[in-house]
Design brief:
Elements (H helix, E strand, L loop, with lengths): L6 E6 L6 H13 L6 E7 L4 H7 L4 E5 L16 H6 L4 E4 L2 H5 L5 H14 L2 E8 L1 H5 L3 H13 L8 E7 L11 H18 L2 H6 L2 E4 L7 H5 L6 E4 L7 H6 L6 H9 L7
Parallel strand pairs: 1-2, 1-8, 2-3, 3-4, 4-5, 5-6, 6-7, 7-8
Helix pairs in contact: 5-7, 7-8
The structure holds 2-phosphoglycolic acid.
Pathway: Carbohydrate biosynthesis; gluconeogenesis; Carbohydrate degradation; glycolysis; D-glyceraldehyde 3-phosphate from glycerone phosphate: step 1/1
GO molecular function, one term: triose-phosphate isomerase activity
Subunit structure: Homodimer.
Amino acid sequence: MSGQRKFFVIGNWKMNVDKARIDHIAKFMSAASLDPNTEAVVGCPSCYLSYARQRLPDEIAVAAQNCYKVAHGNFSGEISPAMILDSGCEWVILGHPERRTIFKEPDQLIAEKVAHAQQTGIKIIACLCETSEDREEGRTDDVLFGQMKSLAASISDWSRVVIAFEALWASNTGVLATAAQVQEALAKLRHWLRANVSDKVANSTRILYAGSVSSSNCRELAQLEDLDGFLVGSAALRPDIVDIINARRPDVSSLIAHFDRPDGRRA
Ligand code: PGA
């Protein structure tokens, strides 16, 4: 948690929306009071980028969920950063754990995508992940530092990059990462940036956590020293996303409880 890093929440819709659902989400997000101290983004399927941009309020940015490593050409099914920008959207998610594990995107390809995206000026949410096998077999550090090293080699302008760490073993598995486990992973990544890039980049780069973030666990996690926000999947389709965007805003009910107690401690 640092004053110099603006809290950041991306709600990643994955392949779970159509126009009617985008309208529904846009409606409850527009009606909500969102913390102005949070940078809020949604991750949208490519065919709905322009539609989502038109439906959402201006203060919510739109990200594509993937893109290719060149501006144009004969690459059926792909989209480029230039096309995302041309659709009025400012962000792209690269190396999402589902791209890495289901679609077998290797570090090298993700690095090439990041390098090209950086040349276009689009802003990037660059993802890393740890699977349950990585964790069980004790190779967490090797895997995370390997992915980070590959990403970092492609990044020239860190001001346009947010890093997202996903504990895949805690994403829709029924297992939740504890606050201590989340802090440990994020602190290791920040330490890696300090040791291998610079103090400035380590101090200024936002590092997000992903893995079943919901309205029930976001407030505790939002207080962690090295956590600067969340990449949210399933809860992004529900009004939970509003609570997650507001995770650092003082909770009015707890303030009332606080003032109710004669000793001034929280009830
Ligand atoms: P989840 O997904 O919040 O449903 O675990 C996060 C993500 O993979 O983007």
